[in-house]
Amino acid sequence: MRARYDDIGHGYAQTRREDPRLRSAIHAALGDARVVVNVGAGAGSYEPRDRHVIAIEPSDVMAAQRPRDLPPAVRAWAHELPLRDGAADAAMSVLSLHHWDDTREAGVREMRRVARGPVVLVTFDQAVGGEMWLVRDYLTELAALDRQIFPPLDTLAGWLGGRVDITPLLLHRDCEDWMLGAFWAHPERVLDPAARAATSGFARMDPAVVERVVRDVERDLASGAWDAANGALRELESYDAGLRLVVATP
User: Which residue(s) pair with 171 in the sheet?
Assistant: First the structure.
């Protein structure tokens, strides 16, 4: 089975940098865990530096982008974690779950199996994310895809078991992590090939769809139509694009 990010992960670390606010929320959710399993660890964003981390990442392309001060990633899949029951104090996964396809439930249950304490997931509520202007008005194909790949939050809670707390994570205007949701106040990023390439939402689309979206956003920015419809967003400091912090404790 080929890792998806071997195809779409090139250059990811350039624009998908850690945002300090998101990092603080994720690390706080880990509590006092000293040994943490990071599933779908990728290039290491949001990985705590002050704890022992077991990074799990199937993609060679993503693992090669990990900074040298982070531990190398074990090549493995979420649904087959090479760890014993309760091997770690906590498990985390940041915006990876929706790439596990038909092994999503198995992967979540594996995280619960290996973690004695909290399981911390960052994911999207697709119903909320689908209302962001980019998805609602231009990239409607992504809304359909998101409904398939992001498990509903109540379903996710059922997989996790125990107590599950779900908290909105607002994306600030100056968010350093250029995930697709962070485009909310920056329509010009749609025109930037590097910014698009580091979002799986664009990377998973047919090139003809991407060309259409770029053309339409460029046209509406030039004509003022985008600002007429969405200009009020430029005055906001933060926005709920559907990003959610899910914390499950046994």
Answer: 239
The 3-state secondary structure of the chain, one letter per residue: CCCCHHHHCCCHHHHECCCHHHHHHHHHHCCCCCEEEEECCCCCCCCCCCCEEEEECCCHHHHCCCCCCCCCCECCCHHHCCCCCCCECEEEEECCHHHCHHHHHHHHHHHHHHECCCEEEEEECHHHHCCCHHHHHHCHHHHHHHHHHCCCHHHHHHHHCCEEEEEECCEECCCCECCHHHHHHCHHHHHCHHHHHCCHHHHCCCHHHHHHHHHHHHHHHHHCHHHHHHHHHHHCCEECCCEEEEEEEC
Question: Which tens digits make up the pLDDT trace of 49-84?
Answer: 999 999 999 988 888 888 888 999 999 999 999 999
Say if CB 157 and CB 164 are below 8 A apart.
yes
Q: Is the pTM of this model over 0.85?
A: yes
CATH superfamily of the 5-249 domain: Vaccinia Virus protein VP39 (3.40.50.150)
pLDDT tens digits along 183-212:
999 999 999 998 998 898 998 899 999 999
